[in-house]
Automatic annotation (TrEMBL):
Annotated catalysed reactions: L-arginyl-[protein] + NAD(+) = N(omega)-(ADP-D-ribosyl)-L-arginyl-[protein] + nicotinamide + H(+)
Domain of life: Eukaryota
TM stretches of this protein: none
The keyword Nucleotidyltransferase appears for this protein: yes
Signal sequence interval, chain numbering: 1-23
Protein known as: NAD(P)(+)--arginine ADP-ribosyltransferase
Statement: the UniProt record of this protein carries the keyword Transferase: yes
Gene3D superfamilies: Toxin ADP-ribosyltransferase, Chain A, domain 1 (3.90.176.10)
Protein family: Belongs to the Arg-specific ADP-ribosyltransferase family.
């Protein structure tokens, strides 16, 4: 009888431990400040540039050299003929999908509190093109604060950033982010908006599901291949609603994002757009390319993307300047 009781206790302990590991979702781990050997840790650690989300407990770290080698191989592979397109599209200019290594991809891991102080003291007082000081942004932020869920940790400045971005600053910001790596520590003009959006995504993600399936539409034509690893290289708006045809039918993306945050009613977009904002540092694998023009999204080309971790080459490189 004693042996049976001990066996029962051991089984219960094992089950409880397994349940705890399974319940440890990625958003909960994002509360930690650093990435250490593939795990988020509360202790100080050296940030590695890649974090795979397939298994949060046993995730793989890859060096910067490995990512750069992968990018070189992809660029060589994509330099020739790309996926065949249906007639009528073959002569159109195509924007190549890539890892966007020239983008501003700061994640602020390990320095978010310090960066927030710097933003408030140094960057927010400046009158720039970020759109953070307009009357429209202020009124929108007031509305957001009134409607804020009690468990969301967004501040007044986070709401101003979300309002500024969705109200129109996204175009100027994303142009600067996409090619701004070289100027990030000198003449980059969007430090406040970039940080506040990144931090808002992080805070919203703490109380949201691990991953979302979202959709992104474009009136432009993109080129990429199955097996390729890419980043959008800017803040990428996507939606839980697959049928927002007004945003385009030429190229569509079906995305499994694990770092994008659902903006709920906090943006200036219509409520039926159900926006999920994807940060510049999230990577995706292209798992399939549909160029038949006959698909459930009614798009000329559909790229199906799966989360492939995160990659940041500029983490916390401005906070101490």
């Amino acid at each position: 009888m004693l042996q049976n009781n001990m066996l029962f206790v051991l089984i219960c302990c094992f089950c409880a431990k397994t349940k705890l590991l399974n319940a440890k979702t990625l958003p909960e781990q994002l509360k930690a400040s650093e990435v250490d050997s593939g795990k988020f840790s509360q202790q100080e650690a050296t940030l590695t540039p890649y974090f795979s989300t397939e298994d949060p407990v046993k995730s793989q770290n890859i060096s910067i050299q490995a990512v750069e080698e992968k990018t070189t191989n992809v660029s060589l592979k994509s330099s020739g003929a790309s996926v065949p397109l249906s007639s009528g599209l073959s002569g159109l200019f195509r924007i190549p999908l890539s890892l966007s290594l020239d983008s501003v991809d700061d994640m602020y891991y390990g320095c978010s509190e310090k960066m927030l102080i710097k933003v408030k003291r140094q960057f927010l007082p400046r009158r720039t093109r970020e759109g953070l000081h307009t009357t429209y942004t202020t009124l929108c932020a007031i509305k957001g604060m009134k409607n804020k869920d009690t468990y969301d940790l967004l501040s007044w400045d986070h709401f101003k950033a979300l309002c500024a971005y969705t109200a129109g600053s996204y175009d100027d910001l994303n142009r600067a982010v996409h090619k701004g790596k070289a100027s990030y520590k000198s003449s980059f003009e969007f430090h406040a908006l970039h940080f506040l959006l990144s931090d808002a995504i992080r805070l919203l993600k703490l109380n949201q599901r691990s991953c979302y399936t979202t959709y992104r539409r474009s009136k432009l034509l993109f080129s990429g291949e199955s097996g390729q690893t890419i980043r959008f290289g800017s803040f990428a708006s996507s939606s839980l609603n697959p049928y927002l045809n007004q945003f385009g039918r030429r190229t569509c993306f079906e995305i499994r994002t694990c770092f994008g945050a659902y903006l709920k009613s906090y943006s200036e977009l219509d409520s039926d757009e159900d926006e999920v904002l994807i940060p510049p540092y999230e990577m995706f694998n292209i798992v399939s390319v549909d160029t038949s023009g006959e698909n459930h999204l009614n798009c000329n080309v559909v790229y199906k993307l799966e989360n492939a971790g995160i990659y940041s080459s500029l983490n916390c490189q401005v906070v101490d300047l």
